[in-house]
Amino acid sequence: MEKKLWKRGFFFLVALLVVMVFSSTPAVAQRTFQLEEATIASIHAAMRAGELTCRDLVKMYLDRINAYDKTGPAINAIVEINPDALSIAESLDEKFTKSGFVGPLHCIPVILKDNHDTADKMTTTAGSRVLEGFIAQKDAFLVKQLRDAGAVILGKGNMDEWAHAGDAWGYSSRGGQTLNPYKLNRVPGASSGGPAVAVSANFAVIGMGSDTFGSLRLPSAANDLVGIKPTLGLTSRSGIVPFSLNYDVGGPMTRSVTDAAITLGVLTGVDPSDPVTFQSVGRYHKDYTQFLKADKLKGARLGVLRFYFGLNQEVDKAIDASIEAMKKMGTTIVDPVELPEDLSKNLAGIYATISDLDFKWHLAEYLAAAGSKVPVKTLSEVLAISESPAMVKSKTPVDKKVIARLKLAEARGPLTDPLYLRTFEYGLAMIRDALLKLLNDNQLDALIFPTYSCPSAPLPGVKDPDYNCASDATPAFGIKLSQSGLASSSGFPSVFCPAGFTADGLPISLAFLGRPYSEPMLLGLAFSYEQATKERRPPKTVPSLK
Length: 546
Description:
Blueprint: H1 2-32, H2 40-48, H3 54-68, E1 78-81, H4 85-99, E2 109-113, H5 141-148, E3 152-157, E4 171-172, E5 176-177, H6 193-200, E6 206-211, H7 217-222, E7 226-229, E8 249-254, H8 257-267, E9 301-304, H9 313-328, E10 332-334, H10 341-369, H11 379-386, H12 389-392, H13 400-411, H14 418-441, E11 446-450, H15 477-480, H16 484-490, E12 494-501, E13 507-513, H17 519-533
Parallel strand pairs: 2-3, 2-6, 9-10, 9-11
Antiparallel strand pairs: 1-3, 4-5, 6-8, 7-8, 7-12, 11-13, 12-13
Helix pairs in contact: 3-4, 10-13, 10-14, 11-13
């Protein structure tokens, strides 16, 4: 009898231990989920396994923002947090329980550049306190697409005021100065610096930016991110405070090529409020991940634009190493490929002639459509408030160089200006034709070059002996740094991805540029390169929270 009781007790104990182990599994698994460098796939896998809820995920990102954005290293990437973020997450959890994921970005946290309209409790200011308190009447088209796909708009990131870079990239009168998380005395890139820093620092999974003349590429390069500057017309611009609609595009910044491809598929499609998107009919895809193959570099033919080398030895060395890696993967490299002199010399001038005049009138159109609650209607009114004594004496006045640029734009004539019209008709056509001829004559799939020819520069007033970039006195210095204008002025797409680091830990980036609507090929090339090199590294200033 005693033996039987012992056996019963033993089996009861074993059963109890089994129950305890299995009942504790979700808690153990939840602790194994790695927030830092999380991808869309890893987040969704954890949710499917029951290891992670949307509310928990959003709370984890908010905790990191609370720990590092305004305290600790105080990188100052965020200007506003969505007060409804947790309740939105809870709603998504309910929907997931009932019917699964609502879309490809289910519960994926997004930080928007502060020029993206949101019809909720968040304001849209384009970095300017002139628009302080302004809430848009409806979401920007891209924002609606993100929400429909299940994304959580977590907040808005700082940006250069009105997308006009001043003395320091990443500064605005609304948000102050954003820091580079890889080296806190350096700039974060312009002008989508806030959302780029947020993604790199693991405050969100996706950063949404806009690009006129490098505003997606420069912050992606400075923050070791993958970014896409889409073909003009592939994504909508309606509801994004404009700089120049002849150049502006919206696009994603992420930590991986796969996440960038997933996001781009969400963002494509026709927007009746942005007629240029009609050009993409029959040429866009809703799933770009189908083009991501590890062997896409094998058999590819790429041309090296050596014109954009020579400003920093470490950048040049890293890109040369990337070229050698691609050769070993079976890529045919045409090195060098020469830019036509007319293109390289006139690129910046063509841009300035068109964009400065565009800004005055395109901003007025945006403000006129914004409704009665917007505090200003014209650029002259923007200038009046920006130069008011209260603004000038405040802790975050408008950058003096930004004021100067706004005044130049205000002084410009109407959109019927003869020089503007001729430049628009012939200058942009010259750039497009020259790039297509370069690609076709050399039978190239894409052009490659440094996304930015120097590492991130020191903040104003900071002297960093580690910084090395050819001086402004160097011949063609400004032209060499204007490689961002190749994709912008042509309207052609560019994909850029991590390509190494300088000795003092600053990211270096490689750009792929191709023909219109060649995003499938460019993403395939970038994915193949990414998988072979694995150059992405998170910044050490914002470690995992205990």
